[in-house]
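Example record

One chain of 186 residues, shown exactly as stored in the release files.
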Amino acid sequence: MWTAKLGKDSSSLAMSKVLTPSVGKRFTGLLLGIDPSLRGTGLAVVEVRGVESFHLLASETVKLPTKATMVECLGEIGKRVCALLARYEVGHISVEETIYVQNFKTAQIMGMARGAALASAALSDKPIFEYSPLRIKQSVAGFGRASKEQVAGQTQALLGLKEALPFDESDAAAVAICHALTHRLS
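Predicted structure tokens for this chain:
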């Protein structure tokens, strides 16, 4: 029946094309991963070359002194995000979502740091994707409640690094890797 409808000999049809639904391609190119925090925002630029083939191009922690005002910290976070986006031709940006905190003031401060990073990223007109800490840990370490040490170790292994990155940078790279492993292009 399908042979007649398609007007082709059934032996010339590839079964994989008939049986496998299209789920979209994985992202390849440069990703900026952001792990926002007021005094220790992690940033990482990761090149995705293929399936589970990653290369770290740059990473940094935006460390700010305790005597810097909140406005100074937010401005510096924005500047550093913009500087990386100006230096690298990033295709997508991935950001860790806000974590649950019981202290309202801490939640506000975290939200402001995220806002500074997101606003600066939005200026690039690149797509921005957000991932929960649980999803990031699951995709990188295989366990949603993985420790910082476990995430850093897996990130080190996936990037082929000789030494683990500092936690903020490792978390930022993990956000980028999570995007590379889970996002599909339509």
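Notes: Residues 104-122 form the longest helix (19 residues).
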